[in-house]
Amino acid sequence: TDKRIIANWMFWNGAESILEYLTTEMRRRKDEYTFAISGTMKKRQRWQTCIKALISEDLSLKTAVSAMYVRKYFDKRTKRNVMDITAALRREMEKMLNVWSWPGIS
């Protein structure tokens, strides 16, 4: 395959993933392209795009937003209890991993 074709494909894949976060004009063009390719119009309101970005695994904001929520609404005792439970689960998981036999490892 021609290097120019590969470069164009790579650029488009990178650019296409961020178009919905840009200007209204860029979002309109992306919608037109999607319609031309698939025949469907999936127009999302700006606020819906923002919420999607906040909870998306790809953008890694889910953890940050969750941390903000916990800081604001969870009391210290609840946080301490969750940390204790997490530590206990980790210890038990490590014990299980140490007693399991792994193929190729003696």
Automatic annotation (TrEMBL):
Occurrences of domain Peptidase M13 N-terminal (ranges): 1-102
Domain of life, per lineage: Eukaryota
SUPFAM superfamilies in UniProt: Metalloproteases ('zincins'), catalytic domain
Pfam families: Peptidase_M13_N
Single GO MF descriptor: metalloendopeptidase activity
BP GO annotations: proteolysis
GO cellular component, as recorded: plasma membrane
Protein topology in the membrane: Single-pass type II membrane protein
Compartment annotation: Cell membrane
Family the entry assigns: Belongs to the peptidase M13 family.
Entry protein name: Peptidase M13 N-terminal domain-containing protein
